[in-house]
Amino acid sequence: MRTTTRVLTAVTVALFAAAFWVPVLRFTDRRFSSDDIGLISAATAGELSPLIFLGVLAAVVLCFCAFTGMLPRAGGWIGLAGCVCIAAGAVSVLSNLWMFGILWDGVTADGMPTGGMILPEPWWGTALIAAATLILALASILQLVAAHRSRRAQARRADPAPAGEESAS
Description:
Blueprint: H1 2-19, E1 25-26, H2 39-42, H3 51-68, H4 72-95, E2 102-107, E3 113-118, E4 121-122, H5 124-157
Antiparallel strand pairs: 1-4, 2-3
Helix pairs in contact: 1-3, 1-5, 3-4, 4-5
């Protein structure tokens, strides 16, 4: 179970790293392809969107805890808290898509004014973040189960002598 947790946390960190280079929000009109929004830009969109960075930090902490064996229970809870942070940040980003809209205007050949607003749509970076968040949640739960099992095994090993059989001194 610990090996599975280690692999899952490493995959989570790798997916978050990949999400830094893949656009999170993309304009369908490719004339605006230079304006596609990456993870760092998207994480500054709303009030709660910077929580995405705390979630990524929680994933790194859980990965460290899984590989070193330090603080298994705390690492699991940190990972679950990171999932909540990422979910709150993602909802904030998606509810503030209008901030990334591109306004355009012009005049038709017959002199009629025209214009509109183009909004970005979620793209592969969003899918990478969603997959990383789900894997982070799974790894956190496995970390908590492993910590519970090891604590129970330690308690069994350190079981005191039954009542009435005290050591003679």
